[in-house]
Design brief:
This protein is mainly alpha-helical and 222 residues long. The chain has helices spanning 11-24, 36-43, 47-60, 78-102, 105-120, 124-142, 145-154, 171-183, 187-211; strands at 63-66, 70-73. Strands 1-2 form a two-stranded antiparallel ribbon. Strand 1 (63-66) and strand 2 (70-73) form a beta hairpin. Helix 4 crosses helix 6 (124-142), helix 4 (78-102) packs parallel to helix 8 (171-183) and helix 5 packs antiparallel against helix 6.
């Protein structure tokens, strides 16, 4: 049974999202040391969830920890972003292909409803939530706990608000093509549609980061 009210995020997750936001906003510059005690005070929590958040961000590849030196922000290159989306495309494409072979009519109806809502909304936060839900439904339909676990990790590092208030004009068409492939129970089409979607996503993510000035000082990692 679902809870009657929305439960608050864990303190760890709040810290993860705030540190991630500061990294991509360049408030925590590439190569800088993360002062965990000061950061915890700024966010308004104890040091424990911040330390747990650092561990999660290490797994995402955004932070590196050195013994006796502390945690440091990793320098990300455009190639890092491309590689990240390449991994998302390959695993998500495999999940979509598997889902296409077994997806139920009830799940297809859920995807159709989600896509209609996504097309109708003008709210950026709602759009991000619905897009994530659309992909999560497909990943769940694939029936692999391992792939779902990996995809949740891969789906986290780049904040959704870097896709700004003017979303990619092709995103709806890409989602529609993906859903049509699932409706047709065509694994090859589903895989190709998912690959194309994330390849375009890589280009949009890099463009959004460039617009934000993420590499403005010419400090991109080689």
């Amino acid at each position: 049974m679902k809870p009657a009210v929305a439960l608050p995020q864990s303190l760890k997750q709040v810290a993860v999202e705030e540190i991630r936001r500061r990294i991509f906003a360049r408030e925590l510059a590439a190569g800088s040391r993360i002062e965990q005690e000061a950061l915890a005070e700024q966010i308004g929590m104890s040091k424990i969830p911040v330390r747990e958040a650092i561990s999660a961000l290490v797994a995402e590849g955004l932070v590196e920890v050195f013994p006796r030196r502390g945690a440091f922000v990793v320098s990300l290159s455009r190639q890092d972003i491309e590689d990240h989306y390449w991994m998302l495309a390959r695993i998500s494409g495999h999940a979509a292909a598997r889902a296409a072979a077994v997806v139920s009519d009830a799940t297809l109806a859920q995807l159709e409803t989600t896509l209609d809502a996504l097309q109708a909304t003008d709210d950026d936060d709602e759009r991000a939530r619905l897009a994530a839900s659309f992909h999560a439904i497909i990943n769940q339909a694939a029936g692999s706990r391992r792939m779902n676990s990996v995809l949740r990790t891969l789906g986290s590092p780049i904040p959704l608000d870097f896709y700004d208030s003017n979303p990619d004009a092709h995103a709806h068409d890409e989602h529609r093509a993906l859903l049509d492939a699932l409706i047709a129970h065509d694994p090859d089409r589903a895989r190709a549609a998912m690959d194309a979607h994330f390849e375009n996503g890589a280009a949009e993510a890099i463009a959004a980061l460039e617009r934000s000035g993420f590499w403005a000082d010419g400090d991109e990692a080689s």
